[in-house]
Amino acid sequence: MMSSRRRDVIEFLLNNLVWLLLVAVLVVFSLTVPNYFQIGIFANIIEQSTYVGVIAIGLAICIIAGNMDLSVESVAALTAMVVGILFCSRGVGLGYSFSPEWLVVPISLAIALGVGAVIGALNGWLVVGLKMNAFIATLASYIWVRGLVVALSGGRSAQDLAPSLRVIGIQTVLNIPLTAWVAIACFAGFSFVMAKTPFGRHVTMIGGNPVATFRAGIKVDRLVVITFVLAGAIAGLAGWLLAIRSSGATANLGTGMLFNAFAAVVIGGVSLKGGIGRLPGVYAGVLLLSSIHTAINLMGLPAHYTQMILGGLVLAAVLLDTVKLSIRQRLA
Amino acid sequence: MSDLILQLDTIIKNFGAIEALRGISFAVKRGEVVALLGDNGAGKSTLVKIISGGLQPTSGRVMFDGAERHFASPAEAKAAGIETVYQDLSLCTNVDVVANFFMGREIVKRIFGIPILQERAMQAVVETAMANAGTRIPSMRTNVEHLSGGQRQAIELNRFVHWGGKLVLLDEPFAALGVEQTRRGLEMIKRIAGQGIGVVIITHIMAQAFQVADRIVVIRQGQVAGNIERAKTSPDEVVRMITGEGFAQPVPAAGMAGT
Ligand SMILES: Nc1ncnc2c1ncn2[C@@H]1O[C@H](COP(=O)(O)OP(=O)(O)OP(=O)(O)O)[C@@H](O)[C@H]1O
Ligand SMILES: [Mg+2]
Predict the structure, then answer these.
(1) Per CATH, the architecture of B4-81+165-243 is what?
(2) What is the pLDDT of residue A142?
(3) Is B234 helix (H, G, I), strand (E, B) or coil?
(4) Which residues of A touch B108 (CB under 8 A)?
(5) E strands along A150-257, which residues?
(6) Which of B11, B13, B15 to mutate to test the pocket of ligand 1 (most atoms within 8 A of CB)?
(7) Residue B46, pLDDT above cutoff 80
(8) Are A193 and A226 within 8 A, CB to CB?
(9) Mind spelling out the 3-state secondary structure of B3-32?
(10) What residues of B are in contact with residue A202 (Cβ under 8 Å)?
(11) Which chain A residues have a beta carbon less than 8 Å from that of B93?
(12) How far is the CA of B45 from the centre of ligand 1 (A)?
């Protein structure tokens, strides 16, 4: 039997392992990779973490609830394309505008969140209403939603986004782009919701034991649908940010983000069996991936190395998950 | 106000071709402890799930607190005042003792309309409840996965004691408890019944049933095989009802014996 104090310390380390890893990686790269240690580089790492970071939030919430949402990347691409088509003036853009002009900001954001939420609700209905396996249902959405993007755009792109929106993509605060602050704010907000509100508590408990939560009178089905709607809406936000960054949208915008987000979620300590994981850890996971990307770029390695390293990292993270589990069992 | 808290009237439950319950009728009075006995597979757990809203009967009526009720979910039954301790425990092992104790009924404070969990207040309540029941758990903040089977069962028992209600259903609540904890548990049940709460307890241990129950109901192959006051029967007779040996007289049809 171990003293409960020592156990708390070990628990704490296990829970925050990814932050330690992040610090270690940053220190090692700063010492070994030329030109790594610069404010600009760090700001760049945070900027790079924006889009993957945002979709990782929704993905993580779904996984913590004991489900899966593979459609988030395609949903982000769809909302980016919808925003592009409506509010771009060239390419497939229809160039809708409002007076005053800035109204385009809240309206486009509302549309992006709405489109994401609708796809999320559909996923939720497939999983809860029709009792489909979440992995399969959202894999299907991943494919057909991307298809819808191509169909909507006819394979062409939308360019020249409305000026009020483009300004958001250029602004920086403390050297960090406004869009990255949006991601940070999302992490802060949803971390709070998951840790401090009944909603977050119930979602976590559903991921641990859906039968027990059902018996306790928690509306399990409703909450699971809400997690899917949230994941969709958050992916919609990511799509909105993507459209702003690229001042429009292309049919293949954001491909590969799903895998990055997935890797970040797992590295960040979210267990695929559900019920375990914290959102700050997920953000650390995203930052860790971006740091590694940046180091690879600076070293001038070809891009496919990034993929190999990423794949290795995911394996390492899943392995770590298993190791942590066995350490925890020994603590018991 | 009727002195009956629960009345079951010809409850039938089929799982496909399996007839798990074949017309169960009996009643529970306020403040009465009814021990539900029967062999494995007799249908006891199924019956408990029907009363607590987890399953819907194929046919039959459930009268609770003076009115016919059809609980569509455990949430509805719970809201009406039915607390249940299930045979397979209902704990989330991935969260701590406090979170489990308050599952679905957390103490919150609204700030700008957002409900915020009040962890300290909840912890204080759980510590008091556990201390009153004599349950020792090192820290209320350890995840339940680190606790022993007995400690887990104690959490469930203390949880229902704390929340009270009008009717309590216990499905083999002492299976993982030690001698001392079982004694405390049995006392707890008597205390609860003393407050006017109806109790239905399922157990396979005859001694426990005779120690705590006012009345004994035996289920055999989905039917009531006996419904008798404890003072008017003996363990031997009950065993014969359970196994069906020397099963002489037919059971009173409406099962209202003892009411
Ligand atoms: N969901 C279900 N689907 C099909 N059959 C079921 C289901 N639940 C229970 N049964 C069947 O109904 C019958 C009664 O089961 P039940 O669990 O109520 O028995 P029990 O009296 O609680 O037994 P034990 O003492 O072993 O706990 C059994 O034959 C069981 O196999
Ligand atoms: Mg049973």
Answers:
(1) 3-Layer(aba) Sandwich (3.40)
(2) 95
(3) coil
(4) 197-198
(5) 158-161, 172-173, 176-177, 248-249
(6) B15
(7) yes
(8) no
(9) CEEEEEEEEEEEECCEEEEEEEEEEEECCC
(10) 104
(11) 208-209
(12) 7
What does DSSP say about strands B59-64 and B67-69: parallel, antiparallel, or unpaired?
Answer: antiparallel
Question: In chain B, where are the structural domains located?
Answer: 4-81+165-243
Does A2 touch chain B if contact means CB atoms closer than 8 Å?
Answer: no
Q: Does A90 lie at the interface with B, CB-CB under 8 angstroms?
A: no
pLDDT (tens digit, 9 = 90+) per residue, B57-111? 999 999 999 899 989 988 889 889 998 888 777 899 899 999 999 998 999 999 9
C-alpha span between B27 and A70 (Å, rounded): 51
Each residue of A176-224: pLDDT tens digit? Answer: 899 999 999 999 999 999 999 999 999 999 999 999 999 888 999 999 9
Per-residue pLDDT tens digits for A246-281 = 888 898 898 889 988 988 998 888 988 899 999 999
Residue among B74, B79, B115 whose CB faces A215 most closely: B74
| pTM of structure | 0.84
- Strand ordering across the sheet containing A248-249: A88-91, A158-161, A248-249
Return d(Cα A88, Cα B53) in angstroms, integer. 54
Q: Per-residue pLDDT averaged across B234-251, rounded? A: 73
